[in-house]
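Project outcomes to date are best conveyed with an example. Our students and postdoctoral researchers have been running inverse folding experiments weekly, and each run begins with a structure described purely in tokens. The record below, which covers 727 residues, was selected by the lab manager from last quarter's runs and is presented without edits.
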């Protein structure tokens, strides 16, 4: 069984150069670790992203008059990045490099098609003429002559594998409607050439391949919706003459009279493949879908419509799909379980709670959305009728008793529409404690969507306890319930917003700024007694301090307050000495608001999308937020570790990043405001002192390292006094 899980946006896409060109991606490659990917756009830029944070870690561009023509990849052996611009110019750089014009450069004699990087081996360079070189051999002699393996053929696709600890590269070419397959073994250097069997009235759209037990399997997706399976065994030491490959039908994913356009195919495991493409079946409107198919039982497992359109490019790394959707690059998490007949036909135990229906492979994709919505109730009804005809009276009684005791997701969704809040809360508690859910995340998403939809249509209905309980299951994301935070903002439910910010990894920047604006607008007094998690502030802030500020700033006489002096019988009145409290040592906001702002500071964001929304903050809100960030920065600097303890507290880097973002978004306003001058002067003074302190430390760093080097390693026992002379 397979399912599509949470979805989030990794980044926005820049429009390609040229009239009428839309946003595009030249390539996407895995980064140095599973949580990083390297994105190359159809222009001048390669960007390294951290997927879990949706945050760019590095960005490198070529000159204005240059264009990257080969997607950047990571060399897993050295940790360096490799790309080609203007077809022949090879560039190699590291994370710390900033300007690609100053990194390693090698000009080659032939045009490069792709660079393939594999773990535990040197990257392979495939030239447009079909020749293959290892990167080491190419760098040893960049001006070496590159032969042409193919003639008048155009490379359409390529991929590299490890077979018996040796790299193997496969690529397909096209010439006058004929398709050829080349398999290149590097060590020893052997090239096999095959010709694909022609298909009438259809042509290949996408290729993918894998190797197992020395057999190379090529999967081809054709425009008629058929996926063909082609087996090759390139083990001969001497390549034979051109062979014609016969293909066998593996899967048919569309009905007749339907044309598949701009599609991509990806292998997920031995029984599942993913298809991304546009179905054009006149007179219906073309629809673009992402779907997962079970090749073993010929069934559609799940699908998702993409209304904003897609470029047809699909990448799959670490159980995540990467695809273009409109003007953004979208990430969709998926999962595939062991294939069984029960799961493939939707009869696995408790599959009705998964919210996913599987259908026959010969299906009209245009009917999928409507069928998916109606399937749980229809399936349950048919099953109930069949069961009632075939079972004895005693069995029917037992089944009825079980149904009364066990609440299904359909019953719960039905009750959410018209039951009272108390009844829904009790049923939800019973459901979460008893349910055996095969697809927990999707089920929770259906439940919370039902609750939010009723909140939107019925203003007096707001089951806060149910919403909090569902969020605390940690099975939700923003993309599963996008209207939840909008409803919480409308109700000013700061506790629910705090939970969402802490647990949702994909909150859009616009929603994050809306929460920030709401938190800054709320008066501290109105937050007193509010159920807010204060774990992020107790490590550096006395939660009772704000209640004592007035008492601390009163005039104190000889260590006693004036109130106590009036009660004292002594008539001697001493000269008052005011107790001055440094305002920088006091938090400018209460602990509840501080905890809410900490949730904002720890949320993931992209600077490009966040900055425009930050400009919506008022000048007073900006000053208040800057003062709180200054307070946090000073408190952080007091710790040796430069960070607060605990998992929910912001880090020094997050504090500095937000301070810089605020100043970037409101620099003119902050400079012109009279009340901001003292704050800016204080920040400048503090940062200058920090810079001076670290400069002094840098001066003695060399001496300390030298002492550590020359100091003899002797055992001085439990106690000793040493005199070290610094010259």
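After processing, the design step wrote out the following sequence:
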């Amino acid at each position: 069984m397979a399912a599509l899980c949470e979805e989030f946006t990794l980044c926005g896409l820049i429009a390609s150069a040229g009239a009428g060109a839309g946003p595009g991606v030249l390539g996407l490659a895995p980064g140095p670790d599973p949580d990083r990917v390297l994105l190359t756009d159809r222009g001048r830029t390669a960007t390294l992203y951290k997927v879990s944070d949706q945050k760019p870690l590095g960005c490198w561009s070529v000159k204005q008059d240059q264009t990257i023509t080969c997607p950047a990849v990571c060399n897993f052996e050295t940790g360096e990045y490799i790309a080609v611009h203007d077809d022949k110019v090879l560039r190699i750089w590291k994370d710390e490099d900033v300007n690609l014009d100053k990194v390693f450069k090698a000009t080659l004699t032939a045009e490069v098609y792709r660079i393939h990087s594999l773990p535990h081996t040197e990257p392979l360079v495939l030239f447009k003429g079909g020749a293959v070189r290892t990167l080491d051999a190419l760098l040893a002699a960049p001006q070496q002559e590159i032969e042409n393996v193919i003639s008048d053929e155009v490379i359409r696709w390529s991929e590299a594998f490890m077979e018996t600890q040796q790299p193997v590269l496969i690529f397909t070419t096209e010439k006058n409607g004929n398709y050829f397959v080349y398999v290149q073994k590097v060590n020893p250097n052997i090239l096999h050439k095959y010709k694909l069997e022609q298909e009438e009235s259809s042509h290949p759209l996408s290729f993918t391949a894998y190797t197992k037990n020395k057999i190379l399997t090529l999967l081809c997706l054709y425009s008629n919706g058929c996926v063909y399976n082609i087996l090759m065994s390139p083990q001969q030491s001497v390549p034979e003459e051109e062979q014609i490959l016969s293909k066998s039908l593996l899967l048919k994913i569309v009905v007749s009279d339907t044309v598949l356009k701009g599609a991509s195919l990806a292998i997920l495991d031995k029984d599942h493949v993913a298809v991304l493409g546009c179905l054009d079946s006149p007179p219906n409107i073309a629809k673009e879908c992402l779907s997962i198919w079970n090749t073993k039982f010929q069934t559609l497992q799940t699908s998702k419509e993409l209304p904003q359109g897609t470029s047809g490019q699909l990448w799959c790394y670490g159980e995540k799909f990467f695809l273009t959707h409109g003007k953004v690059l979208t990430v969709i998490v998926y999962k595939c379980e062991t294939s069984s007949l029960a799961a493939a036909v939707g009869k696995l135990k408790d599959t009705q709670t998964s919210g996913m229906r599987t259908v026959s492979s010969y299906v009209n994709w245009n009917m999928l959305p409507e069928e998916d919505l109606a399937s749980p109730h229809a399936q349950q009804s048919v099953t109930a009728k069949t069961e009632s005809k075939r079972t004895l009276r005693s069995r029917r009684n037992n089944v009825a008793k079980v149904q009364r005791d066990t609440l299904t997701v359909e019953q719960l969704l039905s009750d959410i529409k018209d039951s009272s809040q108390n009844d829904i809360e009790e049923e939800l508690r019973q459901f979460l404690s008893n349910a055996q859910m095969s697809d927990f995340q999707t089920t929770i998403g259906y439940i919370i969507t039902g609750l939010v939809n009723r909140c939107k249509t019925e203003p007096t209905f707001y089951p806060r306890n149910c919403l909090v309980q569902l969020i605390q299951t940690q099975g939700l994301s923003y993309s599963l319930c996008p209207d939840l935070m909008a409803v919480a903002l409308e109700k000013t439910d700061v506790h629910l917003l705090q939970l969402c910010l802490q647990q949702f990894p994909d909150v859009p920047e616009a929603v994050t700024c809306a929460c920030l604006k709401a938190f800054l607008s709320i008066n501290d007094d109105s937050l007193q007694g509010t159920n807010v998690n204060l774990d992020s502030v107790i490590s550096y802030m006395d939660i009772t301090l704000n209640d004592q500020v007035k008492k601390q700033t009163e005039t104190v006489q000889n260590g006693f307050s004036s109130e106590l002096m009036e009660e004292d019988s002594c008539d001697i009145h001493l000269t008052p000495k005011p107790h001055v409290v440094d305002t920088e040592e006091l938090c400018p906001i209460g602990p509840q608001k501080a905890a809410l702002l900490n949730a904002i500071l720890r949320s993931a964001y992209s600077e490009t999308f966040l900055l425009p929304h930050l400009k919506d903050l008022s000048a007073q809100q900006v000053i208040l937020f800057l003062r709180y960030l200054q307070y946090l920065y000073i408190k952080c600097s007091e710790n040796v570790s430069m960070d607060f303890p605990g998992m929910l507290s912001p880090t020094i880097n997050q504090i500095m990043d937000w301070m810089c973002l605020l100043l970037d978004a409101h620099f003119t306003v902050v400079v012109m405001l009279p009340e901001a001058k003292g704050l800016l002067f204080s920040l400048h003074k503090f940062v200058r002192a920090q810079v001076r302190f670290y400069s002094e430390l840098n001066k003695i760093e060399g001496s300390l390292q030298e002492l550590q080097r020359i100091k003899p390693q002797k055992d001085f026992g439990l106690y000793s006094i040493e005199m070290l002379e610094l010259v």
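Residues 341 and 412 are 28 Å apart (CA to CA). The two ends are 72 Å apart (CA to CA). The training component of this project remains on track.
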